[in-house]
Amino acid sequence: MRLYIVDDDRNVQTILKMIIRDRNLGTLCGIAANGADALEDMPYAKPDIVIADLLMPEMDGITFVKKARALWPDTVFIMLSQVASKDMIAGAYESGIEFYIQKPINSVEVEKVVKKVEQSLIDRRTLRKVQNIFINQSDASANTGIPPVTGGYSGHASISSIRSSDGNASKTHILRLRSILQKLGISGERGSRDIIQLVDYLTEHQTRLSDATLGELCSKFSDNPKSMEQRIRRTASMGMVNLANLGLEDYSNDTFTTYANTLYNFEQVRREMDFIRGKSTRHGNVKIKSFLNALVLACTES
User: Fold this and answer.
1) Does one domain contain both 183 and 286?
2) Is 22 exposed, middle or buried (CB count within 10 Å of its CB: 0-12, 13-18, 19+)?
3) How far is 218 from 199, CA to CA, in rounded Å?
4) H helix intervals, the chain
């Protein structure tokens, strides 16, 4: 991974350089003392991850991240600051950062955050590649929109193993999935069982949701696919509500920082947070296909 530092404090620059070098976090591809210089340098540096200070001369970190993300949407941003204001931190997340690190800098925290961001970036790129593969296959086959699968799946008669909780219990990806659902506070929801069935199917057949509708996939598991789809949507939405509440209590909560920008879209989680606080009349929206695809990646990553 290529890392870039944007901070006007030379001591901070030096500390970050040492952490990146000593902990083998990647290649340092550039340093800038302000956002304007960084914007000029980034086309040549081509960083995967940018670590930027919140308070800088000429251009603050939030403005810098907004401008940089518009130009390089695939780059991931981590923000540093001594500011502890929740509104400032919320503004930083809204600008598009992935994580927020409180100064003074702790080398263990920097390593943990950079590695977490690196894995998130790898997952995102992998998901995009897989989606493109299946979209191309779907266009080529001009089929029903459901990506071709392997393993000889043939409908209702072959899903007894998926429906069997005993059969699922020993599967590593199912154990991970149940842990994720528990962290989201939705493991007891009726739709969680449906989510497990779909994610298990997608995992076992090494496929992703692409052009197929959720209803089409649900029809393979239920005689009433519409009800199954509604249960899944309600459960996924409940997970967002629970995450939003976690974020309101503590922006640095591990579950919040891990899943608010991977399983869900952070802007939508933020909207849900505003709804809870009475600042908005609209709930956050869940893109259910992205949610299920992200769950597949999250519970199968090594």
Assistant:
1) yes
2) exposed
3) 11
4) 10-22, 35-45, 61-71, 86-95, 107-141, 160-163, 165-169, 172-183, 190-204, 214-218, 225-249, 254-259, 266-276, 288-300
Residue 48 inside a domain? The answer is: yes
Other CB atoms closer than 10 Å to residue 40's CB: what's the count?
10
Return d(Cα 130, Cα 60) in angstroms, integer: 37
CA–CA separation, 64 vs 56, rounded Å? Answer: 10
Amino acid (one-letter) located at 85 = S
pTM of the model: 0.54
- Sheet of strand 49-53, all strands in order from the earlier edge strand to the far edge: 27-32, 2-6, 49-53, 76-81, 99-102
Per the structure, the complete domain to which residue 290 belongs is given by 152-300
For residues 175 and 50, give the distance between their C-alpha atoms in angstroms, rounded to a whole number. Answer: 34
Rounded (5°) CA angle 8-11-14: 100
Q: Look at residues 278, 157, 291 and name the one whose alpha carbon lies nearest to residue 214.
A: 291
C-alpha separations of 70 from 29, 39, 66, 102, 299 in Å: 20, 11, 6, 25, 30
103/272 Cα distance (integer angstroms): 28
Tell me the two tokens of residue 67.
């401008």
Residue 13 belongs to a domain = yes
Taking the chain (302 residues) in consecutive chunks of 10 residues, what is each chunk's mean pLDDT?
93 92 92 92 93 89 91 90 78 84 88 87 75 58 47 34 41 87 87 90 76 79 88 92 87 85 88 87 89 87 63
